[in-house]
Write a structure and sequence with these properties.
six-stranded mixed β-sheet, disordered C terminus, disordered N terminus
């Protein structure tokens, strides 16, 4: 067996190297340097917001970003920590500690690789959009909530993790606002907002951090009373030592305890990375291999925990920065990781000087950009089912947690989808005469006479468990006298599931007990194979499974001699 061809794992770096040139390298070099600089404040901020040391965020961006670029299926994807993981990571650390986070991230990596191995990358893209928007907006609001303490300089300790108690504490302590800290946050926000007006190539987050950090370092020399909390004040001097790989304990009790969190990380990582890749494909015109991308993301999340890192996924903002600065191959992502590594080795003392309120302002802007309020507004013009899914997913994300939100959102979306399919699937009943239109399996318009005692039931849509129940109820509640022959017209049934087969089998058996013949018409080949495989051919003769309605009616008429004509009576249910 050719393992490489069996597993859809074809890293873009391998194909990019086949026709790589010096011109491409120059473009990737510039893009990689720019993205590395842009990624620095975000990696540090996401690390702090997740409840870990800022060094951890940087290590995650270095190792995770490198692996994603080397093994991923997208040419321009930039991997690293993102805002989407802040909520789930903070919750895991609070409940299970850093080792629990390592185990959950490791298992999430295995799940992601499994999704890629089983070629489920394409399917992940089809998770209902209202769910994605709902929990993304919920995460954005949660991130915003976590930054209020540092932005306002409230100095609160032991802040509740839950949304409502957290805001209750904030509101009760508004009198403790540190106005110097708030001023630093407002200046940071202003710089981020106005930088694009000067030049869209300038990274607003980085520019604000450089300017504000320089100002907060200079102002105390003029005004000795000016003081705001910095990264160094809270975390001490950050280490520049390369972390050694460390193991963690894996046992069934731990796995069972952390599996829901791992599943949430995996699904969230898959959605965000493939969403980022899809956006990138639209700009570059290069198609991402979704399965390879998931495998690459899985590898990154398997390796990162051994170095104390947090979950990794594709970052849309950094990926777009890469594209706009000329990056076209995974080499740019590799360079971005090397730039961050150089900063880690030589510039960490400067990172110690960054004010906490400055980072809080950066994350507030990140949360605003994540919120997608314009998209939410547009979804409110969609069907009510989409609005319900959005609101429920958003509410569960904010009030409870992402695990519950994703599980319930998916469940609700499935239920509403089945309801929509059932509502659009029609079952029609005919007796007396049947008009065969030109769009049927017949080649011309024809009216078929049905002998008395023959009823035709036409199913228009998939014959899955919901429709099967609907059809069964119709059979049992029909007000007409019991027919001698039932023709089930299945020309518009694209597939049938096990419940549909079971209900059909039950109908055939109960009809035979009542001396009613069953004839199937217009059965598609895949449906016919499913019926024969399930043993339906043992209950009725195979010649009772007819390819055309004319054949089915002819057979039914031969089983029930004609005595008088009837009138067509359609009933759409």
């Amino acid at each position: 067996m050719n393992f490489y061809s069996t597993i859809d794992f074809k890293p873009k770096l391998v194909s990019a190297m086949r026709d790589y040139s010096f011109d491409k390298f120059k473009a990737d070099l510039i893009a990689g340097i720019v993205v590395g600089i842009v990624a620095l404040p975000l990696a540090v901020a996401f690390g702090i917001a997740s409840g870990v040391n800022p060094t951890v965020g940087l290590i995650t961006a270095i190792i995770g970003g490198f692996i994603v670029s080397v093994t991923g299926g997208c040419s321009v994807q930039i991997g690293g920590p993102t805002g989407a993981f802040i909520v789930i990571v903070y919750g895991i650390i609070s409940n299970f500690g850093l080792e629990g986070l390592a185990v959950a991230t490791f298992m999430a990596g295995i799940i992601l690789m499994a999704l890629g191995f089983f070629r489920l990358g394409t399917i992940i893209k089809f998770i209902p959009y209202p769910i994605v928007v709902g929990f993304t907006a919920g995460i954005a609001l949660t991130i915003f909530s976590t930054q209020i303490n540092d932005f306002l300089g409230l100095g609160l300790k032991n802040i509740p993790g839950e949304f409502l108690p957290k805001w209750a504490m904030y509101l009760s302590n508004l009198g403790n606002i540190d106005w110097m800290t708030l001023a630093v946050g407002i200046v940071t926000l202003s710089i981020i907002v106005f930088t694009p007006l000067i030049s869209r190539r300038l990274p607003g987050a980085l520019m604000s951090i450089i300017i504000v950090t320089a100002l907060t370092a200079f102002i105390p020399t003029v005004f000795p009373g000016f003081q705001v909390e910095t990264i160094g004040d809270r975390f001490g001097s950050l280490s520049t030592d390369i972390p050694a790989a460390k193991g963690f304990t894996l046992d069934m009790a731990t796995i069972n305890l952390l599996l829901p969190s791992a599943f949430t990380i995996a699904i969230l990582g898959a959605i965000e990375s493939l969403l980022s890749a899809t956006v990138a494909d639209g700009v570059t015109g290069v198609r991402t291999n979704s399965n390879t991308e998931l495998i690459g993301q899985g590898m990154a999340n398997i390796v990162v925990p051994f170095f104390g890192g947090i979950p990794v996924t594709g970052a849309i903002a950094r990926t777009m920065t890469n594209i706009t600065n000329g990056g076209r191959t995974p080499v740019a992502g590799v360079i971005h990781a090397l730039v961050l590594f150089a900063i880690f080795l030589f510039l960490m003392p400067l990172i110690n000087m960054i004010p906490m309120s400055c980072l809080a302002a950066v994350l507030i802007v990140v949360s605003y950009n994540m919120s997608g309020w314009r998209t939410i507004r547009s979804i409110f013009h969609n069907p009510k089912s989409d609005i319900i899914v959005l609101i429920v997913t958003f509410g569960l994300t904010v009030i409870f947690d992402l695990t519950i939100a994703i599980e319930m959102g998916l469940l609700l979306a499935v239920i509403l989808f089945m309801r929509r399919v059932m509502e659009n699937t029609q079952i029609r009943e005919y007796s007396g005469k049947l008009e065969v239109d030109e769009n049927s399996e017949m080649t011309h318009h024809e009216v078929l006479n049905l002998n008395p005692g023959i009823t035709v039931y036409e199913i228009d849509g998939p014959f899955f468990f919901g429709v099967a129940t609907k059809f069964d109820e119709m059979m049992r509640s029909t007000p007409h006298a019991k027919p001698k022959v039932r023709i089930i017209r299945m020309r518009k049934v694209p597939f049938i599931d096990s419940t549909g087969i079971h209900n059909l089998e039950t109908l055939i058996r109960s009809s035979q007990e009542e001396d009613i013949q069953i004839v199937l018409s217009g059965v598609k080949e895949n449906v016919r194979e499913a019926l024969i495989h399930a043993g339906i051919g043992n209950l009725i003769d195979e010649d009772h499974i007819c390819p055309h309605i004319s054949v089915a009616v002819e057979m039914a008429n031969s089983l029930v001699p004609c005595r008088e004509d009837s009138v067509l009576t359609p009933a759409a249910l």
